[in-house]
Amino acid sequence: MAGRIPSQFIDDLLARTxxxxxxxxxxxxxKAGKDFQARCPFHDEKTPSFTxxxxxxxxxxxxxxxxxxxIGFLMEYDRLSFREAIDELAHKAGIEVPSEAAAxxxxxxxxxxxxxxxxxxxxxxxxxxxxxxxxxxxxxxKGRGLSGEIAGRYGLGYAPPGWDLLLTRLxxxxxxxxxxxxxxxxxEQDGKRYDRFRDxxxxxxxxxRGRVIGFGGRVLGDGKxxxxxxxxxxxxxKGRELYGLYEVQQARRKLERLLVVEGYMDxxxxxxxxxxxxxxxxxxxxxxxxxxxxxxxxxxxxxxxDGDRAGRDAxxxxxxxxxxxxxxxxxxxxxxxxxxxxEDPDTLIRAEGLAAFEQRLVGAQPLDxxxxxHLSAQLDTVSRDGRARLVGLAKxxxxxxxxxxxxxxxxxxxxxxxxxxxxxxxxxxxxxRPRRGVTPVQRPTRPSLVAQAIALLLDxxxxxxxxxxxxxxxxxxxxxxxxxxxxxxxAITAYPGINKATLTERWRDHPHFDYLQRLxxxxxxxxxxxxxxxxxxxxxxxGLSKDVRDAERLQPLNRRSTAEWSEExxxxxxxxxxxxxxxxx
Length: 585
What we know:
It is a single chain. This protein has helices at residues 7-16, 19-24, 70-77, 82-93, 111-130, 134-143, 148-153, 165-170, 174-182, 245-251, 264-272, 288-297, 309-324, 345-362, 367-376, 384-398, 405-423, 449-459, 464-468, 482-494, 500-505, 513-519, 533-558, 567-584; strands at 30-32, 35-38, 50-53, 58-61, 67-68, 157-159, 186-189, 192-195, 200-206, 212-219, 227-229, 258-261, 278-280, 300-306, 333-339, 365-366. It is an alpha+beta fold. The protein has five domains: 7-93, DNA Primase, Chain A; 111-229, Alpha-Beta Complex (DNA primase DNAg catalytic core, N-terminal domain); 253-363, 3-Layer(aba) Sandwich (Dna Topoisomerase Vi A Subunit, Chain: A, domain 2), CATH 3.40.1360.10; 383-444, no CATH class; 449-584, DNAb Helicase, Chain A (Orthogonal Bundle). The strands form four sheets. The protein has a five-stranded antiparallel beta sheet with strand order 1-2-3-4-5. A hairpin with a 5-residue loop joins strand 9 (200-206) and strand 10. The radius of gyration is 29 Å and the shape is globular. The two termini are 45 Å apart.
């Protein structure tokens, strides 16, 4: 089930939807064998690599990796939420969306809050054009190098001096005044109410649907604080929202990169100079909600911070948040860029221009390099003790990374460090250490056997009967992913004839949904001939079953001294080792 919508309804809705018709209504598709092809709508390309399968009711781009069901396509192409995509498909199919919580009381209606916030934004924009004191705000914006066009794109405004502009214009009734207070537009002290924003340049904050949810204000005089945000309200939560994300999505259909900076003016100045893919956190550290939104929005994230202590602390906090919440998989790039002391993105891009600034982005430090560099900054990594300490600091962080190729890369780096720690001198003169980490291990050509089996079943549910005929010793394994594999096989068996799109949608609420979707289009699947798919799956399951039987056979031996082993056991161990060496060649 996804949200409060019954899973059976989602299954039926996808069965009523033809993904070829849906996507073909938005872009030109052409027949290519049993599938349909087009140039991908999510990245620029000259040769079509976007494929739509009528049989699987699934789309996949072999260029940028975009993939999903009809629901996923609407979420990506039309920028809809999951519920909005369901509503759109249901409307097209002429059916009503049921709810498993229809009897529950309706949630609060925030439409009046959105309306009054939008009215306030319009008033602030009007003041920037017409108020006698607005010349100070205009001069400030011009002094920061901003054009009227960019100010219009971001909806900049002006809150003039005084205490009651919004109270007078929008607070004509007690109910309206309560809404102004609830929306954070006015404040109350000692029983008196007055406008929160006064004599400030105003920056409207929009959510991903373009609705105004709050404001930021930059003071023009010497008042404090220099920047003032709306307070937390029913529609505005600083730890969830990113300034500029709506404008970025309007400027670019497909985002290849998001640059995360610290302030409003950084975002707007970068857009003025051609970098229209910057967003900012709203005066808070990067949160789990921020990262989830960012990772859903672009394949590459660059966190741009000042090079001082505060900037590096903020960067490390973002890295720890990503690791602690199982968000680092290697499928997306997370990099860190530290600016020279005394510079911020606003001042730097004006000083050196677009080309030089983008060159800095190209040289941003990948997460794995930054991880090891940060941990080793205060250690003597030449000595054995220093490297052992580095390994001890890195291990608990890497342990939190999702099992997969990227984790294998980090563990390979860690293994190299452990080996170097054993060989390094325990004492001796401290020598300078290299800035970059050690060479990472080579990328495996295939995922693990568990991942292979999951990928094959997701892409070809019709293989389930062949899997069901095999011994299920593998179910006793405690390897990551075995429980998912078992649930997946049981689900397909319970719903024979289920297609790929419907099957993957059933896992949308699973914490590893994104990883499962990526497995369903794993590159190794393309290398397996159609008549060899069943054999591949059977081979993976048999390999897993053998692993569990071998482990169970060795378990009692591990409790005994090797001196107690019989000759027969010794010969069997020799054969096992020989077979293992052969597999590794």
